[in-house]
Design goal:
The structure is a single chain. This protein is mainly alpha-helical. Helix content is about 70%, strand content about 0%. The protein has six helices and no strands. Helix 3 packs antiparallel against helix 4. The chain is elongated, with a radius of gyration of 25 Å.
Length: about 170
Amino acid sequence: MKPKDHANLLGIFAWIMSGWQLLLTLFFGLYVLIMGGVAAGMFLDPKVNDPGGPIIMGVMATIFGVFTLIGLAGSVSNFLLGKRLRSEFPPTKRFVITACIINFASFCTGGIFAAALGGYGLWFATSDIGKAFFSGYGDAEVPRGLPDEAYSTYDPSYARDPNRVDWR
């Protein structure tokens, strides 16, 4: 595949992940609103004698609030990554790596798919294909291996004898 094809595929996957993360983030946000409202109601109710219940509910609402914010950051970064990878003006390598790290961090709202997308994006950003894409050669084919001239510069005494057989 050409570097531009990898960028398009990564962009499509980023858009799919953005929608999935936004959906799960909305569920986390709804949970935070319900738990926060119940905790606030329990704090304001004079009949509640045990302060442990509202405190635990408030702590859980805070934890899920952090999950919601991380999910929103992941959803927005994936949307922007998909948009930039499929536009005429590609993103910088730093932005792709940052979006992939956010995908790893937003594991709670994206699951294993967020980690897989983060891994694919990191591979793309750090491989030869990514280097060709970021340098502006998105439609060029990435060469495989060394050219024949590179093999001719080596001393033949270092080369392995093709007729030699290893019996191990």
